[in-house]
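Study this protein:
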Amino acid sequence: MQVFNRPVGKGFTAIAVSPGVIATDMLIRVLGADANKHDAPNVWMKRAVPFFLKLTAKDNGQSLRIG
């Protein structure tokens, strides 16, 4: 799905990324124990960092979601 309709400057890439649900302090305040059904930030980042490192210019304009 293409989400950007304007080109970005040469050497730049614009990618919309949905991080999914992360068990942050705010989520714990809102959901209580149910927040623990989601990954803690330190667990999420083990998926997110490799995901971001694999992005290339061919992903430009896409809307992607982290696992």
Q: What stands out?
A: DSSP finds two helices and two strands in the chain. The radius of gyration is 15 Å. The first helix runs from residue 25 to 31. The helical segments are 25-31, 41-53.
